[in-house]
Amino acid sequence: MLRTHWQPLAEVNRLRNEMDRLFGRYENGPARNVASVFPPLNMWEDDNHLYAEAELPGFEMDDVEIYVTGGNQLSIAGQRKQPEHEGGAWHRQERGFGTFRRTLELPSDVDSDGVAATFKNGVLTLTMPKSEDVKPRRIQVKAS
């Protein structure tokens, strides 16, 4: 007689993996991390500035608010309004609508008075000058 040993934990893991596959989420894949954060954001820096780009397709700039607080906190908030289609019925609605707020800690303090924002082709670009205290300075070494 053939014996099998029941492993409930293995069954739970198998079920979770099937559910993740069904809903398009993968433990180590990019979809799990990217899909849960809106708007997607890229950030980089040079010696004098921090830069951030956020994808905001379908937004008007009047629908977006940007704040830099505490020297190193960036907040982007906004609302995408749902389009109205009179006399029709939705068949598929995959684009999200409603309000969002995303706050993140910047890698260094910035001068909030000098922050500039541009919006082109659905991409918000922020240029944030670094605070004078965090800019790199060359130290002159004196010989004795």
Helix content: 10-25%
Q: What's the helix count? A: 2
Spans of at least 5 consecutive residues whose pLDDT stays below 50 are 27-35
The count of β-strands is: 7
> How does the major sheet shape up?
4 strands, antiparallel
Largest sheet strand order: 1-2-7-6
Written as H for each helix and E for each strand, in order along the chain, the element string is HHEEEEEEE
Shape: flat
Q: Radius of gyration, rounded?
A: 24 Å
Terminus-to-terminus distance: 90 Å
Q: What oligomeric state do the depicted chains represent?
A: single chain
From the helix content, strand content and strand pairing, which structural class follows?
A: alpha+beta
Question: How much of the sequence is in beta strands?
Answer: 25-35%
Mean pLDDT over the residues: 81
Question: Please, could you describe this protein's structure?
Answer:
By secondary structure, this protein is an alpha+beta fold. 15% of the residues lie in helices and 32% in strands. The protein has 2 helices and 7 strands; from the N terminus they run ααβββββββ. The protein has helices at residues 8-22, 30-35, and strands at residues 41-45, 49-55, 64-69, 73-80, 98-105, 116-120, 123-129. The strands form 2 sheets. It has a 4-stranded antiparallel β-sheet, with no helix packed on it. A 3-stranded antiparallel β-sheet has the order 3-4-5, with no helix packed on it. Strand 3 (64-69) and strand 4 (73-80) form a beta hairpin. The longest helix is centred in the first third of the chain and has 15 residues, at 8-22. It is flat. The N and C termini lie far apart (90 Å).
